[in-house]
Amino acid sequence: MSLQNDFESATRRVQTLGSTPDNATLLDLYALFKQATAGDVEGKQPSRLKIRERAKFDAWAQKKGMSQDEAKEAYITLVNSLVNS
């Protein structure tokens, strides 16, 4: 299987988790997914009043410089650990 196929499989499997991961894990999943699919974050950081949007932006910004393939691999690893726990 290719990395892209493994990544797509992980994106489907994450939706079948028995319980919702904690917020930190959700943000990590989001950031890795965005880095894998869109690359480095762009644009302005949202206002502090937009707490959810800002948290997502900041989590994604922490992945800046990570290649899309590295992000896919990290996403797959994280999903596998969640599915197997």
Automatic annotation (TrEMBL):
Keyword Zinc: no
PROSITE patterns per UniProt: ACB_2 (PS51228)
UniProt KW keywords: Lipid-binding
Gene3D superfamilies attached to this UniProt entry: 1.20.80.10
Domain ACB residues, every copy: 3-85
Xref: InterPro entries: Acyl-CoA-binding_protein, Acyl-CoA-binding_sf, FERM/acyl-CoA-bd_prot_sf
GO function terms (MF aspect): fatty-acyl-CoA binding
Any GO BP annotation: fatty acid metabolic process
KW Transcription (keyword) present: no
Protein name: Acyl-CoA-binding protein
Species annotation: Lujinxingia vulgaris
